Amino acid sequence: MRVLVVEDEPILADAIAEWLRREAFAVDVVHRGDLALERLAVNSYDVVVLDRDIPVVHGDEVCRSVAGGETRILMLTAASGVRDRVAGLGLGADDYLPKPFAFVELSARVHALLRRTRPAAPPVLQRAGLRIDPGRREVSRDGQAITLANKEFALLTELVRADGAVVSTEHLLEKVWDEHIDPFTNVVRVTMMKLRRKLGDPPIVETVAGVGYRIR
Known about the structure:
Blueprint: E1 2-6, H1 10-22, E2 26-30, H2 33-42, E3 47-51, H3 59-66, E4 72-77, H4 82-90, E5 95-98, H5 103-114, E6 125-127, E7 130-133, E8 138-141, E9 144-146, H6 150-161, E10 167-168, H7 169-176, H8 187-199, E11 205-208, E12 212-215
Parallel strand pairs: 1-2, 1-3, 3-4, 4-5
Antiparallel strand pairs: 6-7, 7-8, 8-9, 10-12, 11-12
Helix pairs in contact: 2-3, 6-8
């Protein structure tokens, strides 16, 4: 799943991004509202973590431009009063988190927003003997726990979320890796090989030649 962090304090922005990457999210970071709008115009994000008070284009304007679509908005602000929270939600934000905050609460709120996609995603994903708990970052197959690296976990989550549909390599690059990835890389194929090895036999991920991958 892919997240855009919009925060004008570089140290805080980098800390948020690093925390979310540990949770197996693909994360892009910008420090200004105009750059946020540029990224949103070309990339498909599942969640935007949006500081309200950002330069060039205010966070309120960014929120208005995103609200109503598929992307969920978690608004951050130093203003923690009830009136401020109500105003933020009134702009179209899906959730509101005052600063300072605990990173564990931030990631919990991001996971909660992902469960509010259309159609709503269940808190635990299951298919073909696989069980994935994104919030706890746990994976098992037929009751046996499996330890996955971050990108392997994110890749498998995208495949299970597809519910049997074929997922293209381009979609996986967009959702599992950030904007710095080389579009001509073979990283998806290499990561898929490692994932299949860890999932064991019988093989559960099917390659659809020229199209992508799916969970049988």
